[in-house]
Design goal:
Keywords: Folate biosynthesis, Lyase. The protein has about 120 residues and is an alpha+beta fold. The chain has one domain: GTP Cyclohydrolase I, domain 2, CATH 3.30.1130. It is built from four helices and four strands. A four-stranded antiparallel β-sheet has the order 1-2-3-4.
Length: about 120
């Protein structure tokens, strides 16, 4: 088994419960970790034998582009789509961070993290 990590995927998205957040948008960072079997690709050196990082990144970017009130909802969509499209993945950890959230304080980021296993 093995782990693939995509760190600090940056997007400009329009998530949040406030109307202004849907109009103005904000900077986000997504961190993704997936568990899969890397033994075959480590020997074959062939992309078809592993999980394509480009596809993982595209799923994150696509789902971050769809507005949601809650970061939890966006993270759930990312997890669901990865499990639907990449059967080789057995576990996903996804963290979605909103930079400089409008919460009335000096907060660099707010992050939600979800961990899901294929059922």
């Amino acid at each position: 088994m093995g782990i693939i990590k995509l760190k600090n995927i940056r997007t400009y998205s329009y998530h949040g419960c406030l109307i202004e957040e849907g109009k103005i948008g904000s900077d986000y960072i997504v961190n993704l970790e997936v568990k899969t079997d890397l033994r075959k690709s480590s020997i074959s050196d062939n992309l078809k034998d592993t999980v394509d990082y480009v596809l993982l990144n595209q799923i994150v970017v696509d789902e971050m582009a769809i507005r949601a009130d809650l970061l939890e909802h966006v993270a759930h969509r990312i997890v669901t789509r990865i499990f639907d499209e990449i059967p080789e993945i057995s576990r996903i950890i996804v963290g979605v961070s909103k930079l400089n959230p409008p919460i009335g304080g000096d907060v660099e980021a707010v992050t939600i993290e979800m961990e899901e296993y294929r059922s």
